[in-house]
């Protein structure tokens, strides 16, 4: 696949990053396509990629504004506390871009030492964009004092108000909040406030743990049913789970069956957790048959997690109407689990026959998971797991066995057999089985420590790994070894730096370079963010040129979260023989943004995901390297097992908006 782009772009158009005004140190006649034609900017970014703090620090005092700003941003990815004093000093820099970049970096480093400096800067800062960045950064480092400051802050402008909302959200994720902060966030959902402020406030209420939002019932209901943005409505619907009310089933059922956006409907279903099945049965049965497959999948997953009281006869009646293999699998699991023991042998035989005749590996995998609804199927599932030719079948079988072992009524008589299965999986050499079994062994709720006389089999498995390709499995094994040896904290193994950025390739990629992602559901057009994530973009472009992604499957779809692909194994455990660095920039994961999958910082390689909706809990933790500019309707229709036909780089096209959420 050839990289094609237009050389007719004006230098002035290309001279700016998405959020920083740049000062070029090149001649006007030089044909630049992105900011990395500036040798100093390239050098700064290389040092960021190499994590060389000592060589980056001098650039924080560089006379060139763009260089200081880029160096400050670099520490948002390097995250070295050694840079804290210099970054705090830059909060008084004369350049707006430098102050903004420094605030972002301080938040990314996340050290409480920055709290006082950020609060002091807010007392004097006059620029709205810097105020907003400072407020969001404060949320990432806030103690009780910072949380109180955010709750009481009086925003002087809409931009700062949005920053305050994001600050409250970031602090809430860290369980730093006050009652006044909850009240402030509730008020920020009012229709008169900017979209992003309402979005952040609704996510604060939805995602902050242990909140009781009963007193804010009406405000949440108003937002969940009438906000003009589905992004805000879906977060408010999720927050309704934290409201105690006798008519909770009724108002959540109304939302689940009436909102025009499938993401709001399925969030209303998820918010029903803890309610009696009979109260929500009509809404659940309707949602299982929703015209949108994501709503149906999410409802079947909800049913699996909230199966108490679900009548298997009622589910057997609706099962013929459920054509999607994933939806059927989850419903069958509940049918088996909730059926009387005397009815299970017949049902098991029926579903084993369906498993044997399933058309695709993904369909077989779903049915194998369904069979785990009855403990007596464990030996059959284990046999299929160890004999599977397709990785996705083996991986799903292990997931099914772990699900069985996690059930509160798991028979004690089977504990030894499951311990032997997990030990055999660790010795299998399959990276997924090894990693998943290791994670299960260290789960304190499963109490598997006493089942093994020695833990040598874990160390032996670790010695056979090929790094960095199998780093995710290595991390799981190391955590388990440390846990079994009584270590309170496990130090994550670090990936070696083996894959520097291909700058020759980067400097040929325009800032508005677009990519055509062809799937068997339709085409999706992406725009790459080469100036925000050059290493990731170059890696993606190079793999595309090598046809790496052609004919791979979307192996993971989490409704109203992400669709993920790029794995040659097809089960989420496939990687490359190298890893690239995490690249964090002051961007938010909104609907249709692309992130690079990872097993932790600096472990990225070839898997990537597209978001169904805003996912702010991923911000600053996963590299954002592109966004969808056309074809979101296709993204929302993608299912597990759908195919990537190919990925082609093409001429940039005008962005197109499409309705995609019915």
Description:
By secondary structure, the chain is of the alpha+beta class. The protein contains 31 helices and 9 strands. It has helices at 11-14, 39-50, 53-56, 65-78, 84-89, 96-109, 115-124, 128-141, 144-152, 158-173, 179-188, 195-207, 217-226, 230-239, 248-258, 262-270, 277-288, 293-305, 312-318, 325-338, 344-356, 361-371, 378-387, 391-406, 415-426, 431-441, 456-463, 471-484, 503-506, 534-545, 632-635, and strands at 514-519, 522-528, 552-553, 556-558, 562-565, 593-596, 608-611, 624-630, 643-650. It has a 9-stranded antiparallel sheet with strand order 3-9-1-2-8-6-7-5-4. Helix 9 (144-152) packs antiparallel against helix 10, helix 9 runs parallel beside helix 11 and helix 15 (248-258) runs parallel beside helix 17. It is globular and about 80 Å long. The chain starts with 10 loop residues before the first helix and ends in a 12-residue tail after the last strand. The model is unreliable at 1-29 and 652-659 (pLDDT under 50).
Give a quick precis of the structure:
This protein is 49% helix and 7% strand.
Key attributes of the depicted protein:
662 residues; alpha+beta; nine-stranded antiparallel beta sheet; 31 helices; disordered N terminus
Produce the secondary structure layout.
Blueprint: H1 11-14, H2 39-50, H3 53-56, H4 65-78, H5 84-89, H6 96-109, H7 115-124, H8 128-141, H9 144-152, H10 158-173, H11 179-188, H12 195-207, H13 217-226, H14 230-239, H15 248-258, H16 262-270, H17 277-288, H18 293-305, H19 312-318, H20 325-338, H21 344-356, H22 361-371, H23 378-387, H24 391-406, H25 415-426, H26 431-441, H27 456-463, H28 471-484, H29 503-506, E1 514-519, E2 522-528, H30 534-545, E3 552-553, E4 556-558, E5 562-565, E6 593-596, E7 608-611, E8 624-630, H31 632-635, E9 643-650
Helix pairs in contact: 2-4, 4-6, 6-8, 7-8, 8-10, 9-10, 9-11, 10-12, 11-12, 12-14, 13-14, 14-16, 15-16, 15-17, 16-18, 18-20, 19-20, 20-22, 21-22, 22-24, 23-24, 24-26, 25-26, 26-28, 27-28
């Amino acid at each position: 696949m050839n990289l094609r782009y237009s050389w007719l772009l004006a230098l002035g158009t290309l001279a700016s990053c998405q959020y920083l005004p740049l000062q070029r140190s090149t001649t006007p006649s030089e044909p630049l396509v992105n900011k990395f034609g500036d040798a100093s900017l390239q050098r700064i970014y290389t040092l960021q990629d190499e994590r060389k703090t000592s060589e980056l620090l001098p650039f924080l005092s560089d006379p060139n504004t763009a260089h200081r700003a880029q160096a400050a941003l670099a520490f948002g990815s390097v995250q070295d506390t050694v840079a804290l004093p210099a970054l705090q000093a830059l909060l008084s820099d004369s350049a707006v871009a430098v102050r903004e970049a420094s605030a972002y970096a301080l938040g990314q480093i996340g050290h409480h030492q920055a709290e006082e400096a950020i609060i002091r800067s807010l007392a004097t800062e006059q620029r709205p964009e810097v105020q907003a960045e400072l407020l969001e950064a404060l949320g990432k480092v806030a103690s009780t004092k910072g949380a109180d400051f955010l709750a009481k802050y009086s925003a002087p402008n809409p931009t700062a108000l949005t920053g305050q909302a994001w600050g409250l959200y970031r602090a809430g994720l860290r369980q730093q909040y006050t009652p006044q902060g909850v009240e402030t966030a509730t008020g920020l959902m009012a229709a008169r406030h900017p979209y992003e402020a309402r979005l952040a406030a609704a996510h604060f209420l939805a995602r902050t743990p242990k909140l009781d939002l009963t007193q804010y019932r009406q405000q949440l209901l108003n937002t969940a049913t009438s906000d003009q943005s589905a992004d805000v409505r879906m977060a408010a619907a999720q927050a309704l789970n934290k409201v105690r009310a006798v008519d909770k089933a009724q108002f959540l059922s109304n939302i689940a069956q009436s909102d025009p956006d499938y993401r709001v409907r399925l969030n209303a279903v998820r918010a029903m957790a803890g309610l009696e099945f009979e109260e929500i049965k009509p809404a659940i049965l309707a949602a299982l048959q929703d015209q949108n497959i994501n709503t149906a999948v999410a409802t079947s997953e909800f049913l699996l997690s909230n199966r108490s009281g679900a009548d298997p006869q009622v589910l057997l009646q609706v099962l013929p109407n459920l054509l999607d293999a994933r939806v059927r699998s989850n419903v069958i699991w509940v049918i088996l689990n909730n059926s009387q023991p005397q009815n299970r042998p017949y049902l098991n035989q029926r579903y084993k026959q369906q498993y044997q005749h399933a058309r695709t590996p993904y369909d077989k995998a779903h049915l194998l998971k369904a069979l785990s609804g009855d403990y007596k199927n464990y030996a059959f599932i284990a046999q299929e797991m160890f004999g599977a030719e397709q990785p996705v079948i083996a991986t799903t079988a292990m997931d099914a066995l772990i699900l069985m072992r996690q059930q509160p009524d798991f028979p004690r008589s089977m504990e030894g057999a499951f311990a032997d299965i997990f030990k055999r999986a660790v010795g299998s050499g399959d990276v997924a089985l090894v990693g998943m079994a290791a994670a299960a062994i260290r789960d304190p709720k499963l109490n598997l420590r006493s089942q093994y006389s020695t833990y040598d089999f874990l160390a032996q498995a670790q010695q056979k790994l090929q790094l960095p390709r199998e780093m995710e499995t290595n991390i799981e094994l190391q955590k388990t070894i440390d846990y079994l040896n009584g270590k309170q904290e496990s130090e994550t193994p670090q990936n070696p730096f083996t894959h520097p950025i291909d700058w020759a390739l980067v400097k040929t990629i325009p800032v508005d370079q677009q990519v055509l992602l062809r799937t068997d559901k339709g085409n999706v057009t992406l725009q790459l963010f080469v100036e925000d994530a050059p290493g990731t973009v170059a890696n993606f472009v190079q793999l595309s040129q090598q046809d790496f992604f052609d004919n791979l499957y979307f192996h993971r779809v989490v409704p109203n979260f992400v669709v993920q692909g790029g794995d040659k194994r097809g089960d989420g455990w496939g990687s490359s023989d190298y890893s690239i660095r995490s690249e964090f920039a002051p961007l938010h994961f909104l609907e249709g943004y692309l992130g690079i999958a990872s097993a932790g910082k600096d472990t990225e390689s070839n898997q990537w995901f597209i978001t169904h909706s805003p996912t702010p809990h991923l911000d600053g933790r996963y590299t954002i390297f592109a966004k969808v500019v056309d074809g979101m309707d296709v993204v929302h229709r993608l299912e597990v097992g759908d195919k990537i036909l190919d990925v082609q780089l093409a001429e940039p096209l005008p962005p197109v908006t499409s309705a995609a959420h019915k």
